[in-house]
Amino acid sequence: MTHALLPYADRPYRLGVGLVLLNPAGLAFVARRLDTPDAWQFPQGGVDAGEDPETTVMREMKEEIGTDQARILARARQPVAYDLPPEVADSCWKGKYRGQSQVWFCALFTGRDSDVDLATAHPEFDAWRWCPLAEVPGLIVPFKRALYEAVVAEFQPHADRLAAQAAGGR
């Protein structure tokens, strides 16, 4: 039996998390989506029932990039939401949501690059790289760009601090 979709404007937001993962040089982890060529993003995902956002972000990291070798540095001051384009919203998450409201975290990667393994049980990415945090919004699908700009602005001081430490405090 098929259920009628709620009108787009009446759909709730799915609760999720996102992760700005920085390496010790202050560069950000981004991965290219399997389902959207040329679209890159940070690890992110939905909060399961009864799960707190801190637990979710570490679970999603492990599920999406094969490692949870990280230490949380900061949590965003407030959740940030994005709307899916209506035609995408109708097919994504069975049409139940209009987008996501995400709690964002910034974490320091404590592992080695070789710990990253995109060949997970349910692969979402086919490539990854470290890049300057400020460059990430230009790699993102347009409907998420404003969210990424806000997240980058909030966590850029952490990237700058790490970069300065890596350069010997210069």
Model description:
The chain is globular and about 60 Å long. The strands form two sheets. Strands 1, 4, 5, 6 and 7 form a five-stranded mixed beta sheet that branches. Strands 3-2-8 form a three-stranded antiparallel beta sheet, with no helix packed on it. The chain has three helices and eight strands, in the order E-E-E-E-H-E-E-H-E-E-H. The mean pLDDT is 93.
What are the key terms here?
single chain; 170 residues; alpha+beta; 5-stranded mixed beta sheet; 3-stranded antiparallel beta sheet; 8 strands; 30% strand
Concise summary:
The mean pLDDT is 93. It contains 3 helices and 8 strands; from the N terminus they run E-E-E-E-H-E-E-H-E-E-H. Helices cover 23% and strands 30% of the residues.
Annotate the secondary structure layout.
Layout: E1 13-22, E2 27-33, E3 40-41, E4 44-46, H1 53-65, E5 70-75, E6 80-83, H2 86-89, E7 99-109, E8 125-132, H3 145-166
The major β-sheet equals: 5 strands, mixed
Helix content: 10-25%
Number of strands: 8
Summed over residues and divided by their number, the pLDDT gives a mean of: 93
User: Number of DSSP helices?
Assistant: 3
Low-confidence runs:
none
Could you give the distance between the termini?
A: 64 Å
Which structural class should the secondary elements be placed in? alpha+beta
CA-atom Rg in angstroms: 16 Å
Q: What fraction of residues sit in β-strands?
A: 25-35%
- Element order: H for helix, E for strand: EEEEHEEHEEH
The shape, in one word, is globular
